[in-house]
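Quick one - first record:
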Amino acid sequence: MIVISDTSPINYLVLIEQADVLHLLYGRIIIPQAVFDELQRERTPAAIKDWLAYPPAWLEVRQASVPFAAALEKLGDGEREAILLAEEMQADAIIMDERDGVREALQRNLRVIGTLGVLDEAAARGLLELPEVLARLQQTSFRINAELIDSLLEQDAERKSRQRFDNALKKVPDVEPEDRDRLE
């Protein structure tokens, strides 16, 4: 699977100590050189700079060989290069949060996953506890509206409830698989 990431998802996942879910979900993550550079700016938190000083083996930095596209000039360097690299490599997905970048990626028929989508997928696979992680994310400068948080937490609770129910049914030997739907 080829997955390209923009700056903010890496930034926030490192800050909340969940960057490894990228590897667990997608294997290798590729970032363009511009994203690597943005993650090392002067105002970047020390935790991110420390993480990048010894990057994990699953993180790869690549330069897009596609020339600058005028249609992308309104985007930041990281978003622009991430989209160009995703197109060039025919990526399976691009991880991006910035609204204009997401809009442009979608117009180019790229599959876009946001930071919240990564966390939700990781929670669905049992890799993290979503309420705890979202609480940590809210302590950063990540902008998110309360309704979206509530919706994600509600979906997570429903998912966990279904999993508990399914696990309980597995322990009851006399319930046939076709009868399980009627019990729900």
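second record:
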Amino acid sequence: MPGGTPAPMPVATQTKSKVMVTTAALFGLAAAAALGYFGYQEYYKDLFGGEELTPGYGTQGYEMPPVPEYIPLSAGALIRSSGAVYYYAGNGMRYVFPDDVTYRTWYPEDTNFNYVTQVSEDQLASIQLGGNVTDRPGTTIIKINTDAGYYAVSRGGMLHRVDDISILEQLWGPYQWQNKVHEVYDGIFMMYSMGNMIASTSDYNVSDELNASPSIDMDVQWRTQGFVTPGYATPGYVALGPSDWDYWTPGYQPIGDWTPGYQPLASSAYVPQENDIVKGAGPALYLIGRDGRRYVYPNTKTYFTREMNFDRVRVITDAELRAIPIGGNVTYHPGSRMLKLTTDPRIYVVARGGVLRPLANESVAEAIYGPYWHLKVDDIPDGFFVNYRMGTIVNSAMDYNQANEWNGAGTFSDEFGM
């Protein structure tokens, strides 16, 4: 569900002893909680004067709350808690539907989401996030808002660019093809992989693609990796427009002209250069990689782990922007801040190459980031998951050197070996 933890109040009056006591107390629940949960939310509330901890917590006679009942799930179940809808796959993982359109490419008859089963937040969090569901092959034509091209979807979430409209007319019909267009935003692009361009109707068969992926499980198996993700709200919720490109952060004001004193550089026959930061008429900012592609900053938090201000931003025309192929999303700078996924209780550190590594417990977090480590955690929704790969667990400060990660990353292009 879109959203993040509100900014904490200053903790100047908090004593280190309180932090240590709270940390120790909360860590007592860790062994009983799923997925290595170590009391982050409760710790947060107690430290910053919010909701009090359970009376009697950590004292003699305290009774642990009952374990919530989990609904038995079978492969293929559609589930949700209080936000997005997920597909429960045969591999035991959940895949999020990024929007209503994607949902209905697989379940066109379920207009009221009657197939969806309500589960508790605890049960949802206990299921590992696998990625996003992509549009069913053969059902839609993907159109990216800053790219003039159209893309046909093939098995495994692969896109094939189509520049000749007559090909679309022959594949889907001269009037029907426009009704098949699914407009997505740049941040969704990483849900898909790129395939060969379609130069003729012989390069793509709609029926073959439909039959090749009769289920989401089958489509997941076609993928070369076990996950893909981004996403904004799902079935039955508010559809987001172009101005909401940064849909993950409530109250977010788009990067750019809104910033006091922000003066973008004028455009003149722009030629992409590595490490440039550019924008068109819209609010999104892009980093130019060594491969000549543009990588979108998904939000301001990500942006400010790599930049101090907007001084390097250059405004170019939309035509110039569309001429630069999209490469994906920019990730947090390694060693900058810790991350917590919305529906995953674990805390992660960021390593080079967009790798998330879960911390074993609070003691490790404190050893790496200090006693106020909790101030250096950013909540991110499931939609960010596609930007990263999962790494090994960090069991001690010896397993992760924050300074080495920060200093050894180099540029974004260096970090990802472009």
